Amino acid sequence: MKFTFHVSPSIKNNLSTQRIMKELSLSLLVVFAAAVIYYASAWGASAALHCVLLLACSLITTFVCESIFAKIMKKDVKTFLKSSFGWVTAIILTLMVPVNMSCYAVIIATVFAIVLAKLLFGGFGQNIFNPAAVGRAVILQAFTGVSVGLISQATPTTVIASTYHWLPSNATVLDSFLSQYGGFAGLALGTYPGSIGETFSILILIIGVLLAVRQIIDWRVPVVYLGTIFVLTAVVAAITGIDSYHGIPAVIWYPLLHLLTGGVIFGAVFMLTDPVTSPTSASGRVVFAMGAAILTTLVRLKANLPEGCLYSILLMNMFTPWIESYFDGKQLELVKKSRIVCACLALIGLAISFYAASSIQKVDAVPETAAVVETVEVTL
Amino acid sequence: MSLFLGPMRQHIPGKKELTEKSELLHLMPKKEVYIPLVAGRTLDFDILVEEGDTVSVGTKLAETKSGFYVPIYSSVSGTYKGIVKRMHNSLRPQNHMVIECDFKQTKVQSFAPLDWQSATRQECVDFVKNAGIVGLGGAGFPTYVKYMKPDGVDYVLINAVECEPYITADYRSVMDDAKDLVTGAKIMKKMAEAKTVYICIKESHPDLIEKVKSVLTDAAGVEVRPVPDVYPMGWERVLVREVLHKEYGGLPAEAGAIIGNASSAIAIAKAFEKGEAITQKNLTVSGECVKDPHNVCVPVGMPVSEIIEACGGYTQDTVRLISGGPMMGKTIVNDMFVVDRAMNALTVLPAANDDAIACLRCGKCSDHCPSGLQPVRITAALKANDVDEMSKRGVMSCIECGMCTYICPSHIDVTENVRKAKRIVMLKKK
């Protein structure tokens, strides 16, 4: 008879990190499958195959980089790969790149994401920046203009940022924008070319709800992030006094336009919820998501970039350690402090909305260039 | 669901079905019992019998010399053989009084019963003190201490929650002695001068709720309060949070409540009405690695090896034997210890393998900590060996309920890290 020892408690919940990563990978693959089906049906088999090729490049690069790293660190390659979860980064990165991106750009971006943003920090659980976001930023900075020329249509974020200043002010102007993408329904369903996985807003939201219910992601992050963007852009709509759209008041359609265009929904569900690079406490995550939402809105409306989601994530990643130590202590005693911080953030957000609303030129007439954009520009 | 706080609790599969419907086995030791001379932290006892004396069930054997007054009574009839040092379930060798059984179980009344309805409050409290009633939920704290100064106490919460998985000993006791529970509740209400007594039972035990309600006649101010089936529902602070919607600093009395265990209430009723001390103990013997899981009623001081044998023995060659439940119970690496009064279960589980991987910083430990601590941050302070940060992060409020380890998806022994931090902070204070 042998009695073994183990410190208490002696039982464990059946939700393991391996299962969290498995469910997350499956969710991402569902989005990827939707993309393949859409591109195959709308743009032909070669576009769909290109998506698969990009994912394959990213995955293979990830496994090669991690295997070499494991060898250098004298660790067992198989166990290292299994507990490093690099493939999740690879899938997310692929879903974020524009469909026209070339394979070599994705390979280089993956090397940056896996080696520089993750392994050099000490591997899984130690990295400061979201690795996939780093990879995407590399593409944005180094490979703008790279295109394999499979699909020629401008993404909505490019168009709305460059020709509409993110502020179409009446139904006619909005229609001229929306008609290129099948109206609000087209934006919601994702039936237009763009970043491979970011366009399928409704699908991603449904997956997000499922993941939150299954405790894979924290509901606070997407709810606070998307909610804050909605409120801030509604304020902009109210101040600028833009028109209603076929009976829908501007404070509703304008925020919806923001949520359905670009990568915010994908970012909210799959990027900001990355546990490694976000704060651990509930209060911290709320502040983190609010800060990201304010930065996203600011970058979109006032910066040179068409989209703000990516940089808002990377910037908030830098704040994570600070948010963590700010909310150290007993959480029951920190509720008041959390409320105050959120109220301050809300004020900053509103100030930004006022500033943006008062300084952006409204677009009242259909711009001439709106219908003649020819190539896909690289956007977020 | 709160924006700034996690759930602070979690449903844990109870595995209660292993034992809850089985009949109660009454067991007797093969030869001797070893009654531990331990009362909380007190180890200093006056022995009241001589070697070779004949004792009966209920004979007073010893009482504490220092600390809180706690008497110790014999659980069997037979002959007192002296004191031996052996392993106690606190993992230290302690003195035990050896009594050789004569298997007649002749009983003496330990003390005269008391009519609690005509006695004064103070007489009742003194009676509980002299009867040696201790908290039977696990801590073994003398019950009378809580009732010494009941100023501002409006509620008594009787804890029949039993939130530890596998354990059904309280369920069995309340099912069998529901009337005594209600009598005990009335006595506790009187001692606390409280307005209301809530008997807290998990809503997943509707049969038990019905049973207690059926004997709640002419008990004004005593109510059954169903509570959710979550862990650690039976911890004072969580119980007060759920039932009274209050938080408190040190003791529940600050929130106007006294908490008592259901088995303690039953023991109080038996003491007042029959003059019986705590000599027998209902115990759940359960887990995947015991052949025949059962609830058993055993004399205090019976060796664990004999109890396991009566339940069919172990099913595997390598097991983890836990004194208590799987969450807060201690793993003990032999079965030579004996049943103490505050013990309520023996859980036998398969040996565990260590499969921890890196922390993914998911924050589930912070979301679920019933004390609202952030175990992941305490672990970070421990790794940095920063004692000031450890205490700033509230490590001393940890009750080691085990939630953080249970919930950790990376299978890290988080509770053990917090425990280490606690030890370091305590050493620093000295």
Characteristic terms for this protein:
heterodimer, A: 2 domains, 16 helices, 1% strand, globular, disordered C terminus, B: 430 residues, alpha/beta, Rossmann fold, 6-stranded mixed β-sheet, 12 helices, 17 strands
Describe, in plain words, how this protein is organized in 3D.
The complex is a heterodimer of chains A (380) and B (430). Chain A is globular. Chain A has helices spanning 17-43, 45-72, 77-82, 86-96, 103-116, 131-142, 156-162, 171-178, 183-189, 201-213, 220-240, 250-260, 264-271, 282-302, 309-326, 331-359; one strand spanning 2-3. Chain A is built from 16 helices and one strand. With 380 residues, chain A is mostly helical. Chain B has 430 residues and is α/β, with parallel strands linked by helices. Among the domains of chain B are: 121-274, Rossmann fold, CATH 3.40.50.11540; 364-429, no CATH class. Chain B has twelve helices and 17 strands. Chain B has helices at 121-131, 169-176, 178-192, 206-214, 236-244, 262-274, 304-310, 364-368, 375-383, 387-392, 403-407, 414-429, and strands at residues 24-26, 32-36, 45-47, 54-55, 60-64, 71-73, 78-87, 93-101, 155-159, 196-202, 222-227, 257-261, 280-286, 294-299, 318-323, 330-332, 345-350. In chain B, the strands form four sheets. In chain B, strands 1-14-13-17-15-16 form a six-stranded mixed β-sheet, with helices on both faces. A four-stranded antiparallel β-sheet of chain B has the order 2-8-7-4, with no helix packed on it. Chain B has a four-stranded parallel β-sheet with strand order 11-10-9-12, with helices on both faces. In chain B, β10, α4 (206-214) and β11 (222-227) form a beta-alpha-beta unit. The chains are: A mainly alpha (380), B alpha/beta (430). β1 of chain A pairs parallel with β15 of chain B, so a sheet runs across the interface.
